[in-house]
Amino acid sequence: MMNKNYAICLDVGGTSLKSAIVSSHGKIMENSYKQVPMDTQGVAEKILNVFISTISLHINYLYNMGIKPYGIGIGMPGPFDYKKGICWIEPEQHKFRSLYGFNFKKEFINKI
Predict the structure, then answer these.
(1) Inside any domain, residue 1
(2) 10 — phi, psi (to 5°)?
(3) What confidence score (pLDDT) does residue 108 get?
(4) Which of these, 12, 25, 56, 77, is most buried using a 10 Å CB contact count?
C-alpha cells in the first residue's frame, strides 16, 4: 500500500458532499467513502465547515496509517475557476449563492 499515492477526492452535489480517498491506481481506499448532507443554500461559513471537517477526517485517517496525502481533488459545479479555486456560481441560482467569488483554495490553505 505504501508504494501508491493517495488523494482526497470530493464530489460536490446539490444536497451532499461525497468524498473518498483514492489511490494513484484509481482504487477507492476501503472504508474511506463518506457522504455528508450539506445545505447548499446556507451561508458560506457553514458550507466551508462541511468541506473542512470532511477533508480533515480523511487527512487524519491517512496519517493514522502513516500515509501523507498526495493532494485534494474537488469536483464542483460551475461556473468555477478550478485553477484559482474561485466559485463563480451566480447568486441568482438556487444553490451555492453564498459562495459567489469565494476562494476555496485560499480558505483550504489557511484552515487545513
Answers:
(1) no
(2) -120, 135
(3) 82
(4) 12
Cα separation of 95 and 87, whole Å? 12
**Alpha carbon distance 32, 22 (integer Å):** 9
Cell of 16: 451532499
Position 104 in a domain: yes
Residue reference for cell 446539490? 14
Q: Please report the pLDDT score of residue 77 as a whole number.
A: 81
What domain count does the chain have? 1
**Mean pLDDT confidence for 41-70:** 92
Helix (H, G, I), strand (E, B) or coil at 59: helix
What is the CATH number for 56? 3.30.420.40
Cell numbers of 29, please?
481506499
Single pTM value for the model = 0.84
